[in-house]
Amino acid sequence: MNAVGIDVSKGKSTVVVLRPFGEVVAVPYDVEHTETELKKLADFLKSLPGETRVLMEYTGHYYEPVARYLHEEGIYVSVINAILSHDYNKNSIRKAKTDKIDAIKLASMALDRWLDLQEYIPEDEVRQTLKICNRQYGQYTKLKTMLKNNLIALLDQTFPDANKLFTSPARKTDGHEKWVDFVLKFWHCECVCGLSERQFKDKYARWCKRNGYHYSSYKAEEVYASACGNVGLLPLCESTKVLITQAILQLQTIEEALAALKHEMLQLSSRLPEYETVMALYGVGDTLGPQLIAEIGDVSRFKNKKSLIAFAGIDSPPDQSGQVDKRSKSITKRGSPTLRKTLFQIMSVIIQSCPENEPVYEYLDKKRAEGKPYKVYMIAAANKFLRIYYARVKECLVNT
């Protein structure tokens, strides 16, 4: 029994090897994340007599090169959540934390939990790329919101309520929104009201044709009336134009990046066996479908539906003491926050659509009729949705 504890950090790892009864096979030493160093580590571990198991923590993406390399070398590797190792072996008064101490703790934990260690199985390239794309999509979405709010704040001083002139959704090809493209041309209310209504209509019609938007004479009149009813605080000058134009160009760049990522995520998810099954679920579309697949990953890695619900962090743990036996009033939130956000968005789509004979909506509506608070019935519906997801996708994977 050779228990190997590896404390992973950026660019290097600290390794220690222990055996039962405190026997130290290898004192803590550092290993660089290079092919040469990892090869030496793998050869050393394979040369040890008896069975060898490696234990490490999830540390961003830093652990993946080490775990993948050792797995490919035929070494048993287990990767655990950092919470498990953090709560293990708190039998010291001193508060000390070093890479060597953490590596020894992991090796000791591997000895104690030897039979419970689950083997690490690397994700296939498609799922791994899809998950990274989704995380980048989330980051760009936050940036888009920030840039859009900044642009609206600037327009409040040049063209108030310009963002409310058009309600067209973002264009699928490049992610552009009509009101953003419009203010790039007409960035100040005086750019509109400085013309006669006829002149503006002609100019607006040419702009719509050039940018691929639908022209409406009624909408042109509405925009002209709105512009004439506003007063810009900033002057109609080149400096103001630069401020507005640069804010718009930054926003458009992010919109184009989001459209490209969305298209790529759709292409990647379509290569997975569960794609058709997931996309057939109500409330899941071209945006939320790939996000859901990306965050859940291979559903066969979950023992049962409860494991999937726990992974999402929407389970209510038991609360029992003496004669009191009940469920906690709050969810654990110990799972993926990105998955919880995606589930909440899907539930929002379902509750807005009110589909008939749809099991998730019927369950949600039942809880709402019982007088449950908003968050309670939304979480309950998300629970129901994940149970259906697990059953259908599991069946799909078995049949393929």
Describe it.
It is a single chain. By secondary structure, this protein is of the alpha/beta class. It has three domains: 2-116, ATPase, nucleotide binding domain (Nucleotidyltransferase, domain 5), CATH 3.30.420; 129-265, Helix Hairpins (Orthogonal Bundle); 275-399, no CATH class. It is 55% helix and 11% strand. The protein has helices at residues 35-47, 63-72, 82-86, 99-112, 125-155, 178-185, 190-193, 197-211, 217-228, 238-269, 275-279, 288-296, 305-312, 337-353, 359-369, 374-399, and strands at residues 2-8, 12-19, 23-32, 52-57, 76-80, 318-321, 324-327. Strands 3-2-1-4-5 form a five-stranded mixed β-sheet. It has a two-stranded antiparallel ribbon with strand order 6-7. Helix 12 packs antiparallel against helix 14 and helix 14 (337-353) packs across helix 16. The radius of gyration is 28 Å and the shape is elongated.
Essential attributes:
alpha/beta, two-stranded antiparallel sheet, 3 domains, 400 residues
- Summarize the amount of helix as a percent range: 55-70%
| CATH topology annotation of the largest domain | Helix Hairpins
CATH domain class name of the largest domain: Mainly Alpha
Measured by DSSP, the beta-strand proportion falls in 5-15%
Number of helices: 16
Looking across the biggest beta sheet, what order are the strands in?
3-2-1-4-5
User: What global shape is seen?
Assistant: elongated
Number of domains: 3
Counted beta strands? 7
The CATH architecture assignment of the largest domain turns out to be Orthogonal Bundle
Based on CA atoms alone, the radius of gyration comes out at 28 Å
Q: Determine the structural class based on helices, strands and strand pairing.
A: alpha/beta
Residue stretches low in confidence (pLDDT < 50, at least 5 long) are none
Main beta sheet: strand number and arrangement? 5 strands, mixed
Q: Could you tell me the mean pLDDT? A: 89
Would you list the SSEs in sequence order as H and E?
EEEHEHEHHHHHHHHHHHEEHHH
Distance between the termini: 38 Å
